[in-house]
Specification:
Elements: H1 2-27, E1 32-36, H2 38-47, H3 50-70, E2 77-91, E3 109-130, H4 134-200, H5 208-243, E4 249-253, H6 268-278, H7 280-300, E5 306-317, E6 335-345, H8 350-418, H9 424-458, E7 474-475
Parallel strand pairs: 1-4
Antiparallel strand pairs: 1-7, 2-3, 3-5, 5-6
Helix pairs in contact: 2-4, 3-4, 4-5, 4-7, 4-9, 6-8, 7-8, 8-9
Length: 476
């Protein structure tokens, strides 16, 4: 019986495997392909960026310092102290002394047979009235510090946006290279068929040297295709990592064609003015300089006495210790008191104050030096980015003109070959040149777009403005 069971199981195994395969495909739907614009791509990537989250925490800390500085305006020094314990009662052997006058008995004794719970609480506070601008300057310094932190966050976001733009353009470049390689392979196959036909017909114009050169060219091109495929896979993995996408979702650029960004290069002065006004680094250093100046003024205020309102109140209660009726006598275990008045507070360590002022002054000058150096560095970077963008634009335009001539060359050689007057070697040279120019133009388009983005970043202009009219999102 067991033997027949095993035979039946062996016969049904292919059907079982087929059913399992069908079930697996049925339970694993194909991934959704989502086409996104650069703005959507950048928005998703920033949402999952741990680095930007950490920078955002710096802003939150700076805003917390503002609240701390503002807290100095109302009762910055308010304390509550309590004490609790067990204490013995007191007794007097003089029958003429009442409990409220026990302080008159020099022979007053502790009553170790009478124990009570001792409770005491004291609250004290100082309210600043006039501090020579110390508190106001501290608040302003904290606000400018938070402003500088926000500009630093903006700078990190702009740098990250530039990196995302390069990754987005890389995906467009690799898609265009795939299209061009497929077209080039088609043309190479046509040339190969024509070459084999002429070779079979014994055309005397075909030499073995031509055949070897063609197949060497084709082998080199196929190696470049493999390299391109590996780059494509790397870019896709980078997209998945940046967008935190799972296996059920695939993101692709919304653009169907790889074109230069729709922006023209302006005069250098336009970008220079924009950089000096819009760069987050310069504005952040300006805010930091103002914060240092407010901090310096707050430190100088320590030279002068501050006017305060003071208040304090306290009580103590122990049931087995009577309160004394004399206002000059205080029973620390049973009392009630309150005080209110005006006073001055002055730090008399002027040597220490002088050092603090000098340190604040040095910090202010240091930040100003950083700001001047940042302006020089930004203008130098801007000049270099402007040069690269102009060169990329010029090179691409020249290669486009060369491609038009090369395309005409290919058509001419193909027509001559079709009517029997052409030379296959000339056609091969024309196809090779056209293929090289197409690939070079695709790379130059990538360089131009990236250099334009770097120019915008150096000028403090939003990189996303370069792609606003390049497409809309859609779902495939």
């Amino acid at each position: 019986m067991q033997k027949y069971f095993l035979i039946c199981l062996w016969l049904l195994m292919p059907a079982i495997l087929l059913f399992s395969t069908i079930q697996a495909h049925a339970q694993t739907p194909p991934p959704d392909t989502i086409r996104v614009t650069f703005e959507e791509f950048a928005s998703i990537a920033k949402e999952y960026s741990a680095n930007l989250d950490a920078r955002q925490k710096n802003v939150a800390l700076a805003e917390n310092r503002i609240r701390q500085a503002n807290a100095n305006r109302v009762l910055p020094d308010l304390r509550l102290t309590t004490a609790h314990g067990l204490v013995p009662g007191v007794k007097s052997r003089d029958p003429n002394i009442t409990p409220g006058q026990y302080y008159l008995d020099p022979n007053l004794e502790n009553d170790w047979e009478d124990w009570g719970i001792f409770t005491q609480a004291e609250i004290s506070g100082l309210q600043p009235v006039y501090t020579w601008g110390a508190i106001g300057n501290l608040v302003n310094a904290a606000r400018k510090g938070a402003e500088a932190a926000r500009y630093e966050l903006d700078s990190q976001k702009e740098n990250f946006t530039l990196q995302l733009f390069e990754l987005y353009q890389s995906a467009l470049l690799i898609a265009d290279l795939e299209r061009l390689t497929n077209e080039a392979l088609r043309q190479l196959n046509e040339v190969e068929r024509e070459l084999e036909r002429l070779r079979d017909e014994g055309d005397p114009s075909i030499e073995e040297k031509d055949v070897f050169e063609f197949y060497i060219l084709k082998a080199e091109f196929e190696a470049e295709v493999v390299e391109m495929e590996q780059t494509r896979d790397f870019i896709r993995r980078s997209w998945n990592l940046v967008l935190a996408s799972g296996p059920d979702r695939v993101y692709l650029p919304s653009e169907r064609f790889f074109d230069p960004v729709p922006a023209t290069i302006q005069d250098f002065g336009f970008y220079e003015n924009s950089a000096l006004f819009n760069r987050s680094e310069i504005r952040g250093l300006q805010a930091a300089s103002e914060a240092a100046d407010y901090g310096l003024q707050a430190t100088r205020a320590q030279y002068y006495p501050s006017l305060f309102l003071g208040l304090s109140a306290g009580f103590g209660y122990t049931p087995n210790r009577p309160r004394q009726n004399n206002p000059f006598i205080r029973n620390n275990t049973n009392f009630l008191s309150a005080r209110f008045g005006v006073g001055f507070q002055q730090n008399l360590n002027f040597w220490q104050i002088s050092n603090q002022v000098e340190r604040s002054r040095i910090q202010k000058r240091q930040i100003d030096d950083f700001q001047d150096a940042a302006k020089d560095g930004i203008l130098l970077e801007l000049s270099d980015r402007y040069r690269e963008a102009k060169i990329s634009e010029s090179r691409r335009e020249s290669r486009i003109k060369a491609l038009e001539i090369s395309s005409e060359w290919v058509r001419t050689e193909q027509i001559d070959l079709d009517i029997g007057f052409g030379d296959v070697r000339n056609l091969l040279d024309a196809v090779k040149k056209k293929m090289e120019l197409e690939l070079e133009i695709s790379q130059l388009t990538f360089n131009l777009n990236l250099n334009m983005a770097r120019l915008y970043r150096a000028a403090g202009l939003p990189v996303s403005e370069l792609t606003l009219s390049n497409g809309t999102s859609s779902f495939d």
